[in-house]
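Continuing the series of single-chain predictions for the mutant panel. This is the parent chain; the variants come on the following pages.
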Amino acid sequence: MAARKSSIKRETKETSVSVQTNLDGSGKISIKTGIDFFDHLITSFAKHSMLDLTVKAKSNDNILHHLIEDVGIAIGAAMDKALGARTGITRFSYASVPLDESLAEATIDLVRRPYHKINLSIKRTQIEGMSKEDIEHFFTSLAQNLNSCIHLNVKYGENDHHKVEAAIKSLAVAFRVAASIDKKQKGIPSTKGSM
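Parent structure:
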């Protein structure tokens, strides 16, 4: 089997983002976006999906929204590229992850039909210096560019930090299983013969 690795560089007037990933890694992580809580979320995603992930991101226009969006786009695109033809993968998975009083559930189909329904249940306008809309937009940008069907729902919780962290961890665990190689699966895991 070919190595499931990829590199993406996204250079715009607004940002400079580079991402390297290895889906069959061991959780080697280096994240530098300049936004502490954002780095924490991406680090949690890499750790619990057990992929190697390096992200270097720099804002060229000092607008956080552009940086957060472009990082989501680049990570999703890198993961999509690393999946290749998606031959031999498990394809479907789900995970339910608690964080103290919060509970999040993620369901994923790594088919190449992008659809996402994301409900983070955030009440505050900001969490650790990141706006609610930018956090939600990161999840959306990642999901769209991963080119998959993702349903992510925070079932309940009181602490918005906990809700978002439970959400990213549940997505990570679901992705880890869905992207894993199924030894019984021969070829593309679809009756169509194509993803």
